[in-house]
Write a structure and sequence with these properties.
The protein has about 150 residues and is mainly alpha-helical. The chain is about 60% helix and about 0% strand. The protein has five helices and no strands. It comes from Streptomyces solincola.
């Protein structure tokens, strides 16, 4: 719960609590806060239990942590066999390197995608640029285009 609080910050919080509430009232305040946290946790667990019971038996293994989009995608990518095949065949670093080479005008490496996907249906490959820009200068900057 308090993973991001360091030792110095914890000491500062304790000193502030002693200064604000005083040493005689501090144990009562700690008990009240602990009781409040316990009630909130019980309320949360009861609400989760009620939602699971209302959803029915087909959702008995439903976890509320799966509603987090990052956790959902991570779970789907790790469990789905079809997506594992796609992920293993796709090399993002190589694709980014090919795009960077195309932008810098370097010769592109061998494409890692099939020819039908690569667009080799007779259209020229725009990544392989053979003619230098006119005059050797950069094209003019168009502020309206950006």
């Amino acid at each position: 719960m308090f993973n991001d609080i360091g030792a110095l910050e914890l000491v500062v919080l304790v000193v502030l609590a002693v200064l604000i509430f005083g040493p005689d009232k501090l144990p009562k305040v700690i008990q009240d806060v602990a009781g409040f946290v316990r009630k909130v946790r019980n309320f949360s667990e009861n609400a989760k239990h009620d939602i699971r019971s209302e959803l029915g038996p087909e959702f008995k293994d439903f976890e509320f942590e799966d509603l987090n989009p990052k956790a959902f995608i991570r779970k789907q990518l790790s469990e789905n066999e079809d997506l594992k095949d796609v992920r293993s065949s796709f090399d993002l670093r190589k694709e980014i390197g090919d795009v960077a080479d195309a932008v810098n005008g370097l010769p592109a490496s061998e494409p890692s995608v099939p020819a039908a996907v690569n667009g080799s249906s007779g259209a020229p490959d725009l990544r392989k640029r053979t003619d230098p820009p006119a005059g050797g200068d950069r094209p003019p900057f168009d502020s309206d285009a950006t």
